[in-house]
Write a structure and sequence with these properties.
The chain contains 9 helices and 20 strands. The chain has about 425 residues and is an alpha+beta fold. The chain has 2 domains: about 210 residues, FAD/NAD(P)-binding domain (3-Layer(bba) Sandwich), CATH 3.50.50.60; about 180 residues, D-Amino Acid Oxidase, subunit A, domain 2 (D-Amino Acid Oxidase, Chain A, domain 2). The strands form 3 sheets. Strands 5, 6, 7, 13, 14, 15, 16, 17 and 18 form a 9-stranded mixed beta sheet that branches. Strands 1, 2, 9, 10, 11, 12, 19 and 20 form an 8-stranded mixed beta sheet that branches.
Length: about 425
């Protein structure tokens, strides 16, 4: 990984030199309509960026938040009617984050007066030999998380939305639920502004320039310039593009993928079964190699069911929404729905949506400082499982900026340096 990483940096240097000459010949007079020196500029207004701006502004920092699209857009990873929130992780780092995230979500609801979370309970199930489930139960025990292992007859009686099998290990956890994704991002954006952040959408950053350890210049495509002491890059799938344009001699080892989620309507004969968020728990199924997840009906008609990490790799974010989701994977989802959710019409989805995962090679997050520029922070390419942790990630980044350390005992697991050696891909969703 080290040689690959260095080769990537050299390629970026070569391309960046070309871009620099090209930009200099096409240069325009820049508009500088903001003479404020900000403490931190956060680039990217998804769940990570808005949460970071919100937490920093609460701490009294002078914050600028820039989003390239309209706030709440559907071009990235932070939109939709619902995302799962849960404790169901086998790794210490994510249980630490979950314990931090739940009360922070409660704070956001109280401060905004908006309901953003519905607790549904959550079910993780699969084979009795599933290592992911075995590790999950051990983690629950270690961290004193309440859980219940259910017999399949009991689970089917309690949750008629499902058809669990005799061979299933079924683990129920009462605190899981859904977060209203688009509403949450918009709400936290407004809270950040209430606490003093300057939040601007339709402001695409062209490049950033590190002038010194205490000064960064940010240039947008509409020819505006902003100044800040530090920058947080929470750009998701666009992270390497902005690093390249900014000639920062760094390429993050991530790959964006275009994922698709499907909504399945109840059959007419099962109209007596409640598939709503007030009765239907979220679920994650672990097969031998595949993982599927489900959310109850929230706003969009139908139960949301997706095939985790099954989407097309994107060579750039411009390809998002243009590729065709593999038909054989649609068939896999249909068979899964037919077997485990027989009350739903598996013959044809009622609706579908695309979103983007920004995946690291080991499916863990990245939260770290640039190896050469300590006033540039790389914030959380989340590999398709980060939304629930948004406020906690914002808090951790705030701690990192304020104290140069965080409260997470295993924070080093999110470092960039881990890619200089062999890493193991996580097996849990």
């Amino acid at each position: 990984m080290s040689n690959q990483y260095n080769n990537s940096v050299r390629r970026i240097q070569t391309i960046s030199t070309h871009l620099s000459h090209q930009n200099s010949s096409d240069s325009k007079v820049l508009k500088s309509n903001d003479h404020t020196l900000y403490d931190i500029c956060v680039i990217g207004g998804g769940i990570t960026g808005t949460s970071t701006a919100y937490q920093l502004s609460k701490e009294g920092y002078k914050v600028l938040l820039l989003e390239q699209y309209k706030i709440g857009h559907d071009n990235g990873s932070s939109h939709g009617d619902g995302r799962i929130i849960r404790f169901s992780y086998p790794e210490d780092i994510y249980l630490e984050l979950a314990k931090l995230a739940y009360p922070l979500w409660n704070d956001i609801e109280n401060e905004s007066g908006s309901k953003l979370i519905q607790i549904t309970g959550g079910i993780d199930f699969g084979s009795h030999k599933s290592q992911a489930l075995i590790d999950l139960i051990n983690a629950y025990k270690k961290h004193n998380i309440k859980y219940q292992v259910m017999e399949y007859q009991e689970a089917n009686e309690r949750f008629p939305q499902f058809n669990f099998q005799k061979e299933n290990l079924i683990v129920y956890q009462q605190d899981a639920g859904v977060v209203y994704a688009t509403k949450a991002v918009q709400t936290i954006w407004e809270l950040a502004k209430r606490f003093g952040a300057v939040a601007l959408d339709d402001k695409k950053v062209d490049q950033i320039k590190v002038e010194s350890p205490e000064l960064v210049t940010i240039q947008t495509v509409d020819q505006c310039i902003y100044k800040s002491k530090k920058v947080v890059l929470s750009c998701g799938g666009w992270i390497n593009e902005i690093l390249l344009r900014s000639q920062l001699n760094l390429q993050i080892p991530v790959e964006a993928s275009q994922e698709k989620v499907f909504y399945w309507s109840p059959k007419p004969e099962t109209k007596n079964i409640d598939y709503s968020q007030y009765s239907n728990p979220v679920s994650i199924y672990y097969g031998e190699v595949d993982a599927f997840y489900s959310l109850p009906q929230i706003e969009i008609p139908g139960v949301k069911i997706g095939y985790h990490h099954s989407g097309n790799a994107l060579s750039s974010m411009k390809e998002n929404k243009t590729k065709v989701y593999p038909p054989e994977f649609v068939e896999k989802i249909k068979k899964f729905v037919e077997k485990y959710n027989p009350g739903l019409d598996h013959s044809k989805e009622s609706h579908s949506l695309t979103c983007v995962y920004t995946n690291t090679s080991d499916y863990h997050f990245i939260i770290d400082k640039h190896p050469r520029h300590q006033n540039v922070i790389i914030a959380s390419p989340c590999s398709g499982h980060g939304f629930k942790f948004g406020p906690a990630i914002g808090k951790v980044i705030t701690q990192l900026i304020k104290h140069n350390k965080t409260s997470l005992s295993t924070f080093h697991e999110f470092s960039l340096s881990r890619f200089n050696k062999s890493t193991n891909k996580r097996i849990s969703a």
